[in-house]
Amino acid sequence: MSYDRLTPDNAAVLFVDHQTGLSNGIQDQSLPEYINSVTALAKLTKTFKLPAVITTSAADGPNGPILPVITNLLPDAQIVHRPGEINAWHNEAFVAAVAKTGRKKLIVAGVSTEVCVAFVALSAAAAGYDVYAVIDASGTWNKLVQEVAVARMAQAGVKPITWVAVGAELLGDWRTPYAQEHGQLMADHLPFYGNLVGSFLAAKQG
Amino acid sequence: MSYDRLTPDNAAVLFVDHQTGLSNGIQDQSLPEYINSVTALAKLTKTFKLPAVITTSAADGPNGPILPVITNLLPDAQIVHRPGEINAWHNEAFVAAVAKTGRKKLIVAGVSTEVCVAFVALSAAAAGYDVYAVIDASGTWNKLVQEVAVARMAQAGVKPITWVAVGAELLGDWRTPYAQEHGQLMADHLPFYGNLVGSFLAAKQG
Amino acid sequence: MSYDRLTPDNAAVLFVDHQTGLSNGIQDQSLPEYINSVTALAKLTKTFKLPAVITTSAADGPNGPILPVITNLLPDAQIVHRPGEINAWHNEAFVAAVAKTGRKKLIVAGVSTEVCVAFVALSAAAAGYDVYAVIDASGTWNKLVQEVAVARMAQAGVKPITWVAVGAELLGDWRTPYAQEHGQLMADHLPFYGNLVGSFLAAKQG
Amino acid sequence: MSYDRLTPDNAAVLFVDHQTGLSNGIQDQSLPEYINSVTALAKLTKTFKLPAVITTSAADGPNGPILPVITNLLPDAQIVHRPGEINAWHNEAFVAAVAKTGRKKLIVAGVSTEVCVAFVALSAAAAGYDVYAVIDASGTWNKLVQEVAVARMAQAGVKPITWVAVGAELLGDWRTPYAQEHGQLMADHLPFYGNLVGSFLAAKQG
Amino acid sequence: MSYDRLTPDNAAVLFVDHQTGLSNGIQDQSLPEYINSVTALAKLTKTFKLPAVITTSAADGPNGPILPVITNLLPDAQIVHRPGEINAWHNEAFVAAVAKTGRKKLIVAGVSTEVCVAFVALSAAAAGYDVYAVIDASGTWNKLVQEVAVARMAQAGVKPITWVAVGAELLGDWRTPYAQEHGQLMADHLPFYGNLVGSFLAAKQG
Amino acid sequence: MSYDRLTPDNAAVLFVDHQTGLSNGIQDQSLPEYINSVTALAKLTKTFKLPAVITTSAADGPNGPILPVITNLLPDAQIVHRPGEINAWHNEAFVAAVAKTGRKKLIVAGVSTEVCVAFVALSAAAAGYDVYAVIDASGTWNKLVQEVAVARMAQAGVKPITWVAVGAELLGDWRTPYAQEHGQLMADHLPFYGNLVGSFLAAKQG
Amino acid sequence: MSYDRLTPDNAAVLFVDHQTGLSNGIQDQSLPEYINSVTALAKLTKTFKLPAVITTSAADGPNGPILPVITNLLPDAQIVHRPGEINAWHNEAFVAAVAKTGRKKLIVAGVSTEVCVAFVALSAAAAGYDVYAVIDASGTWNKLVQEVAVARMAQAGVKPITWVAVGAELLGDWRTPYAQEHGQLMADHLPFYGNLVGSFLAAKQG
Amino acid sequence: MSYDRLTPDNAAVLFVDHQTGLSNGIQDQSLPEYINSVTALAKLTKTFKLPAVITTSAADGPNGPILPVITNLLPDAQIVHRPGEINAWHNEAFVAAVAKTGRKKLIVAGVSTEVCVAFVALSAAAAGYDVYAVIDASGTWNKLVQEVAVARMAQAGVKPITWVAVGAELLGDWRTPYAQEHGQLMADHLPFYGNLVGSFLAAKQG
């Protein structure tokens, strides 16, 4: 029952199969919301300098290449192209890449939630990691599949979470050096917050 | 598996970041429903003379001041303005204020559900408190975030609840002195109940 | 195709069967939202000093008395208790009361949308009035009934509207004397707007 | 733009293909709601002694027999078993049966809304009848089909309506002899109203 | 992890505050669906001769009398009118009535789900009973409250269930003497099943 | 207000941009439902030997090739590959192909509803055709876009419809030679109907 | 019944009260979707060099400044700050600015749909303009208000539309010089389309 | 907390009461989606040569015969016609058939989710099997029943899952001999994936 937060020092991020083709099968949320959340998670990874591992499934086939927003934001992240394993945890290079991060808390997102995310999450939890599944930076075929995937992962001890909470845990305190960059990220991707800031500054200056 | 109810003697209420700006980001319920539930929770706190701790995050910035309905109803509640900590439990003054209530059961509500509520709830539970998260007197960015937040808190042993149930546990029995004030509260904030009373009195007098 | 707005001088408001019992049958919106909208419409009536006619159906029976919020806000409105007519337009006193207002634009709300509102609206339109049906200050048994009622009224030339639009047409310009009272009304019943004002004033004063 | 209500003297009811098999394809509302609405419409027909025509499509095949609740309530209604025509208006016996009612207002319900109801409604309107399509006493395969069917019929001048409004137009006034039977019908099929009556009588007697 | 089914010999049914007034506050399902499910549960109780305890909260006030369908179907059930206790388990007569049934499995339904049902369910579970909460034969103010109530009860080991599953566990086998009466119950309250039977018999006889 | 049905002799079908890429942007219905409806419409075209015109937009680019199910079922349909025109009606070959069908009733479906379908529908209606837009054999980016597209087309006199109604108008009577093939089509694509048939035959043979 | 499309030469765009404060009241769609659509409409305006008029309501008060994305994209658009008129059409400078565009087709979007958009749309239509209301680049307080606003505008001849359709009408043909910039816009704001392009290019190059 | 995947060697599939009549009562998803998922699960069973047990409840009565798609795809599966037991686990032949498969992981689907699936799942879990309940290849009367059934099964350790995840666990790696057949299955039943493949191949060949 202990609660220790995600920090820039204890967490790594796993981007699993956020590919252009697979992303077009998502119907558990709107595509603009999905892209917005994925972008926000990638920016959080960059802002907090978290080690990241990106993996793909048959990226030279119909599943398509990685969403460019991820690779553009995280040019140095290790990418593991899996030749066939559906569960990235079955790929030794991926497991090694995760291990090399030295982190024990894993933030996992991907497409689809019930396959690419759930399999990695369940495997990593079984391997002793503390796993967080970012449901809104992931996507799947319909709302029912999402609900079932969350229930299955929660049952196994994987923590369901969403990107704003990930960011809030990582930042921890608005007096840290990360705050300014994080604030901009929030304003850009949680639009009501950007609106708040705009209104506030105008009122101050008005 | 024991069940012991919330009482006026064993519970305190924590209002976490119910600020005007943050409240305008809520989309997991309608704003009239949210304001109605927050007001009801504040009135419950007043009716049952529960110790309350109010906390804010950057209240002099875009997040905005506390909803006036809370401070108007609870003028004597301790307010902890956090200079930067996102998780109120990381603020020593807040933890001390909670401890000073002497209560072991904590009723937590706030904005947003998955950050301000969940972090406090998870931390307080880890610290040994019995924590109730009031989901309808809280709010967040969309229904998915709410669902994920409830799942995460429930997984950790935090009890999800709604304001009517909080009030019913606190009252316990309609023969106590609190009943009249509580009845009025119910009539005002659970509108069907107010309608019932209006119809009943008219029928009796008709 | 001409468009001339509702004004304090050309419109009257008809409250049709907003009774405590009938209101408890509403499921096309939440009760807190319904009560909030009805209250707002009554306040608009008061603010803009619109002539109002209130009517009831069997108010001394199960349908129950008028919602007190209406009669409290509009103590001088004429009330026509119908002895049996379902369509208020079939009641001579009601039609006379409407005629006595001298207004050609009628703002109609009530319970239920497809009966009490639609029948009056269709009859009044047939009688030459320009009729506005306020859908969110009305209510009915489920969303399907609401949709069908709106389609039927729109088909017959009745204008579907909601309370914020009614208020905005009536005010017309924020430089009129009504503006201050109207602003408070908006802040109280469109909660996000109240939050905006609270944040703005705090930022100005901060 | 004239508005003249449905009355016991000017309206007939057409039940189109409310068959046991076809009814099991309905997904635009729940089955308990559908059966409840169909039963209420049949009782309205009986209460107000409206002429009724029942028709079926291949009732000795998979479409199944007429819902027994309809034939039980309306044992004297003429039944036209269509040997093949999908649009009942293409069946001479049906058109003749409708004509024989001598009524110019037709209340139409059936399964499915966009076929059996819409075809009859559009044909009858083209033939000069004033047609009301009872959407909640009808049913179809999903919500989209329902919405499209309502839009198509409304576009052609067919009036979309629901059963409670049909009953309210027919009754017209609670002081007519029909009132008692109609009140019981309402209490039985609009459950909140039955609850209102139960509460009212108890309060009166209490 | 053992699974032993509800049987006519090991289960009792608790009807908690299914009162006419309270029932009119339900918005987590339609009223026709709610009444249908409550009626079905009462019929199951009668069919399987289960001991039943009915309890009310302030039945001579606005909450109103028990739904007549329950008392009509179960005229011999013990009724405990609570003078003030919100949690029926705090009423000694109620607890004694439950104990007197001699059953260790309790099937609980009522209004509202998160108060009247949840409090009894949590208390009874704490007292060692095996508790089933029948969510569709219960009701509450909106879908969110329902979801939170289910989550809270499930967290505490109460089994969430719906009336068809209760009936199926009780019957166990279609070759028992209960089958005929149960089949009629299913046909009447799960309308698609009644339609299936009607179609089947017609096909057989056709 | 005349109503004359679609027949095998008076109607043609236009398939507008049902391409593999575009189809993956659909979120106003599930993809299995969309594919099912498109397939059914293509089969209807084949069954009733309707002239069909298929058109594509940049089929050798990201929009992708025509859904194979369409071309497989309708190998002889004329295909007009548009080099750039978004509105197919701006393409002379397309308009000529439509004219060559000699039909005055046009059944239009495509992706997306508000662009490819609506533009053709509005243009064809302006050119004097009687246009039917098949909403469930079309698709678009979200439910709001669908609703707005239907409203716009209905406003302009285009008839909104769904595939089952198209088929029912075309068949007209179950005693025509088309009936057997049409019945199989219905059983395959309106699954509840296939189930009905399966149950019926079993009961007959049982 | 004529249909003539929006073109770069016949249309102007009106941005009505897209202010930071007002935008935070939107609940008829998610904020990421709203911002995405508004941005897309502003980019369309820029791409097709459409004359634009931006107007605000009390922009130095709680309503807040214009969304920066609009003014950044359209630095040369005329801005009319209204001192008090709710309906921008009541402001002479605004009407003059619209007239000065010389365009007879007006594309209107704003916050809120039923006030700021509908009033301008109805007034402009009454003044003889051909008006298109862009529902997804507008926003309002809840889905019901949106539906009612669309019904009211459609009833008055205003054409409901969404941003992708606006863009498609403006582009007209992918062989025009606008195509490249428009394609990028589509890829950026209709994310599935961006994914299509990404997959296509990868497949081509792979 | 270990995670070991479903494999062709450790799993069996149980099809419980997927009968034509029962399937027509499903309202927790659309029928096209349900049939699509059931078909996919049957094809997965065939592709991976999993032992399967099919069982029916009163298949010669109104419940109807097994969906032909299942028996057509799995002609060699053992079928246990239960003479009366509702819970298939109470039928010795069924339990024996399951035992004879020699598998310890059971994939269960059926109609209805909360009865036929849940009872078998709970019983099998109690008997020591590792049970997966395939929610989208199952169906029930409404969404609430589905949610409650998932909650009850998850509480008891049954793993909720959907058919795509089942297939992905079984395949494990796209380099196995099963891949080609599995890919075709995915393309046929997860339509966006079929579209992806179609677009990809066209781009490659284009």
TrEMBL record, chains A, B, C, D, E, F, G, H:
InterPro entries: Hydrolase_YcaC-like, Isochorismatase-like_dom, Isochorismatase-like_sf
Pfam families: Isochorismatase
Source taxonomy: Bacteria, Pseudomonadati, Pseudomonadota, Betaproteobacteria, Burkholderiales
Organism of provenance: Massilia cellulosiltytica
Domain Isochorismatase-like: 12-163
This protein's name: Isochorismatase family protein
Superkingdom, taxonomy of origin: Bacteria
